[in-house]
Amino acid sequence: xxxxxxxxxxxxxxxxxxxxxxxxxxxxxxxxxxxxxxxxxxxxxxxxxxxxxxxxxxxxxxxxxxxxxxxxxxxxxxxxxxxxxxxxxxxxxxxxxxxxxxxxxxxxxxxxxxxxxxxxxxxxxxxxxxxxxxxxxxxxxxxxxxxxxxxxxxxxxxxxxxxxxxxxxxxxxxxxxxxxxxxxxxxxxxxxxxxxxxxxxxxxxxxxxxxxxxxxxxxxxxxxxxxxxxxxxxxxxxxxxxxxxxxxxxxxxxxxxxxxxxxxxxxxxxxxxxxxxxxxxxxxxxxxxxxxxxxxxxxxxxxxxxxxxxxxxxxxxxxxxxxxxxxxxxxxxxxxxxxxxxxxxxxxxxxxxxxxxxxxxxxxxxxxxxxxxxxxxxxxxxxxxxxxxxxxxxxxxxxxxxxxxxxxxxxxxxxxxxxxxxxxxxxxxxxxxxxxxxxxxxxxxxxxxxxxxxxxxxxxxxxxxxxxxxxxxxxxxxxxxxxxxxxxxxxxxxxxxxxxxxxxxxxxxxxxxxxxxxxxxxxxxxxxxxxxxxxxxxxxxxxxxxxxxxxxxxxxxxxxxxxxxxxxxxxxxxxxxxxxxxxxxxxxxxxxxxxxxxxxxxxxxxxxxxxxxxxxxxxxxxxxxxxxxxxxxxxxxxxxxxxxxxxxxxxxxxxxx
Length: 657
Hints:
alpha+beta; C8orf32 fold; Jelly Rolls; eight-stranded mixed beta sheet; 10 helices; 38 strands; 37% strand; globular
C-alpha cells in the first residue's frame, strides 16, 4: 500500500485519541524540540467570548479555532497546526484530555510551540517535557503495513469542564521521494462545527502552484508578504457536515482546496516512471523463472497469468513504508530474496518478469478508497494509495493486482482490479485512464435450489442448494476457504438459510468442487427442513419457498431519508432457479414479472408441470449508487420486487385425511 499523504478525511475533528493501540517501541526523549512559533506564521487569536450553544459542540467539545499554515520554499516544507477547543461537559473531558501528534521521524522534525489551559482569566502552561511521551505506534500493522511513524502524546493533567485547551506545533521536513515538490490540502468543514477556520500557504512567487477548489467557491486572498506569495482562507461559524457511512466510497461532500507543485497528471507520470524502471539484468533466480515460464507456456496470455500467479504465491504481503519507501518500490532481487513486499514491491517484481517475457506492461496508480472519486482532483502523487499492473495484450487492457491471493483460470477468467480510474505510468500519458469492467469482475452467482416435499405433507422436506461461483465470486470463496475451517463455514452456511427456514438441519457436509482452469467453484449443500409445512387457523397447511440469494440484494436500507447517495454492491448478476417438488399434481398459473429501476433489473418467472413448480429469479445491478432524489422510487421498486419473490403453497387439511 502506498502511504497516502493527504486528501483523506474522517469528517470528524480528532483532538484526543485513546492510547490503546499497538505500542511497538517506547522511544527515548529528545525526539522533538520545544520552540517559539515560527516568525513566518500569522498569529490567529481565537474568540474566547464567542457564544457556544449546544448545537455548536460535538462529543462534549466546542471547537473555537482550526488554524493550519504551510510554508514551502525550495525543498523545505513547514506545516504549522494550531487548535483551540473548549470542554463543555464530562464527555468532552474524558475524550479530550490527551493530545496526539503523528510524525515520520525519517524526514520530519516535530517542533512543539505551546500547550496551555485557559480557566477564566488564568492561563496555565502545560508544555512540560515530563507530560510528553513519544511512542512508535504502528496503527496499520493489522493491514501488514509498517510505516515507521511515531506519535507524540501530551497527557494533560488537571483538566476541568469549562477549560479552553490550546496547542500549536510545526512539522518540518518533506519526503525526499518527491524530489523537492510539495502538495497538500486544506479542509474547510468537518462533522463537527468550528467557530473559526484559517488556512494559509506561503510560497516563492515563481513557484507555479496549481489549485483545485472542491465543493466550494471560497477563493483565496492573495498577497505578497516579505517577498513570498501568500494564499489565505478565513472562514467563520463553520457548521457541521455529516455524511452517512453507507454513502459510496467516491462521494465526498466536504469543501476543501487542494494545492500541488504537480501541474497536471503528466507531471505525476514523469515523477513516477523512474520509480518503476525495471532492472537491466536479472538475478539468476529471476532469470530461471523467466526461462521456466517461456518453456512451459507458449501464449502471451498464459505467460502473463503465470507471472502474476508466481508473484502472488511467492511473495507474501508486508509493507515497510518508511520515508521514501512510502512511494518508492524495493528492488526486485531484494523482494524475492526476503519473500515479502507491499503493492509497490510486488508490482515492480511483476513488471520485471513481464518485461523479460516481452509483454507490454506498466505500473498504474489507483486510489483503493476514493476509487473513481479522484476524477477531477488536483494532480499529485497524494491522490493514490495503491499501485497495480496494466497489461496491454491483443488490443485489450488488463488491470492486474499482484497483492491478491493467487488467482486461478485464464487471463480472461480472473478478476481484474476495479478502482474506477488509474494513472498509468508510461511515457506520453497525461490523463487518468478509465478502468472498464470485464465479465470476470461481475459478482456472479448461479444457484439451483431443490425443495423436495414428495415424501408427504407432514414429512421433513429435503433442501439441496448448488451454487456456481465464477470470476471474482469464486476468488472470494477461495479466500474464505483459506481462512476458515470447514466446520465454521458449514455453520455460517446453515445459519444463512435458517433465517428463512428455522427448522433447518444439516443432512451431510457441504461439497466443494474447484475448477481452477476456468476459475469456477461449485458448492453443494445438503439440508432437511422439518417445519416447511405449517398449520393455519383456518385448517390449512401452508409452506413458503424463499429466494434468499436474490432477496439479499432487495433489502430495504436503514437510512432512507437522506441528502447523499447510497452505495450499492456492484456489479452483481445473481440467478436463482428453484424447483419445488410437491406430494401431488397441483395445477397453478405461471407467468413472468419484471421490475426495472435505474440501478437494477429484476425478473421473476414461474412455470408448472405436474408435481413440480419451477421459479427463476434474477437480479442485475446497473450502478454502484442510488441518487438521493431517486430513493423513494428505489424503495417502491425493491418492495415490488420482494413481493414477487418466492411462493406460498396452501392446502386444506381435509384433503390430507
